[in-house]
Amino acid sequence: MGAFVISKRFNGEYKFAFTSRKGKTIFSSPGYELRFECEEAIEKLKANLNSAVYTRHKAAAGKYFFKLTVGETLTVTSRKYSTELRLQKGIDEINQSAATAEILDFSQSDIIFG
């Protein structure tokens, strides 16, 4: 099962990423000023996953990625994939486990393992 991971960027903004059950990042969010905004975005995404729209793109370097939108809001951008099949597997992972995925918060401390 995948998980949502909340972390802090170097500029102090919060972000979340959805990771697969193997620990690979599937997508990441834009930055949020406050942690609760990040948590609300995750809950909104989980609640509206059935109406989410995936837009597939091909980067100039030939890699594939998708953007996921909920309503009119661009919610997340995926990592780059080498093939369209891997891209589809990333989307399938989201559809299978994101709605019930747990939320892990690593934004409180810079030192995770003491």
Q: Can you tell me the overall shape?
A: globular
The span between the termini is 26 Å
CATH fold descriptor: PH-domain like
β-sheet strand percentage: 25-35%
What is the domain tally? Answer: 1
Helicity, as a percent range: 10-25%
User: Per CATH, which architecture?
Assistant: Roll
SSE topology string: EEEHEEEHE
Supply the helix-strand structural class: alpha+beta
Query: Overall mean pLDDT score?
Result: 90
Poorly predicted regions are none
CATH C-level name: Mainly Beta
Rg for CA atoms: 14 Å
Physical arrangement of strands within the biggest beta sheet: 4-5-6-3-2-1-7
Please provide the count of β strands.
7
Largest sheet: 7 strands, mixed
Number of helices: 2
Organism: Flavobacterium magnum
InterPro entries: YegP-like_sf
Protein name: DUF1508 domain-containing protein
Structural account:
The protein has 114 residues and is of the alpha+beta class. It has a single domain, classed as Roll (PH-domain like). 24% of the residues lie in helices and 34% in strands. The protein contains 2 helices and 7 strands; from the N terminus they run βββαβββαβ. It has helices spanning 35-47, 84-97, and strands spanning 3-8, 14-19, 25-28, 53-58, 64-70, 73-78, 102-105. It has a 7-stranded mixed sheet with strand order 4-5-6-3-2-1-7. The protein is globular, with a radius of gyration of 14 Å. The relative contact order is 0.23. The mean pLDDT is 90.
